[in-house]
Amino acid sequence: MEGLTAQLQRNLRTLEKIGHFNATELLLVGGGSRNALWNQIKANQLDIPVKVLDDAETTVAGAAMFGWYGVGEFSSPEQARAQVNYQYRYFWPQTESEIIEGV
Q: Could you say which DSSP state residue 51 is in?
């Protein structure tokens, strides 16, 4: 997990450099985001909060939102999106003492 996170960190730094921005949080969706230990490792190694969407079916929900918009139920995709109340779980970077304490 640490090796994959190191690769993620390299890729994120590349994107930040190319895009001229500094990431302030990482939003995760999908199956890999269900691993709490890995999410904490990412937060610690990247030193930014990791925000996990608490919905396993994000692709289906996104397709439904565009479908609602397409049939005229909503005037814009943004209006359709506003109808969905997502819940998030946060993983905050830990200090070394917090990591040791948790072991």
A: E
pTM over 0.90: no
Let me know: does 50 contact 25? Beta carbons within 8 Å.
Answer: yes
Answer yes or no: is pLDDT of 57 > 90.
Answer: no
Token digits for 1?
């997990």
Q: Which fold has domain 2-93?
A: Nucleotidyltransferase; domain 5 (3.30.420)
Kindly write down the DSSP assignment for every residue of 16-42, as one continuous string: HHHHT---S-EEE-SGGGG-HHHHHHH
Is 12 buried (19+), middle (13-18) or exposed (0-12) by CB count in 10 A?
middle
Task: Give bridge partners of residue 51 from the DSSP assignment.
Answer: 27, 90
What distance, in Å, lies between the first and last C-alpha atoms of the chain?
A: 17
Please give the structure tokens belonging to residue 11. Answer: 């890729």
Task: Give the pLDDT score at 17.
Answer: 98
How far apart are alpha carbons 46 and 23 in whole angstroms? Answer: 10
Phi, psi angles (nearest 5°) of residue 93: -60, 140
